[in-house]
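New to this. Explain the following:
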Amino acid sequence: MRDGGLVGQVKRPDLRRADLVWIDDLPDAAWVMDRMLRLVVEANRAEFGFDLTDFGESAQIARYGAERQGHFGWHSDIGKGQWAAKRKLTVVIQLSDPADYEGGTLELQPDSNLYTAPRQRGFATVFPSFVLHRVTPVTAGERFSLTLWAHGPAFR
């Protein structure tokens, strides 16, 4: 794992403290992507109806550890760059048992309300990539998550 930055490899520890590995760098991980792609297609069909064209960006495994108060401040997943500019849907899957860490809550703010994502292991939270969200600081243990982005033409 390497120290996580932002789009374009920008390091901002005040905004994000996490260790990252890209799933394409792991042997025998193709089956994970296959399952995630099916999940995204089903969620998009049922809830969003976005024009999705590809999944060109590797999924990311993030580790947020208490030793550094791992966190990711308020942000959206759309940005500059080849892939970030085309992100339409974000999927975050909780990999850790909630008993293994404190803090590390995924919060979303799609409107004036604040939503807390379920913490149970295996739960997938799917949301438009323009939605503001954050991971609160981990205060004990470590939290692992898997994130994938679906891409398409720019929002109009």
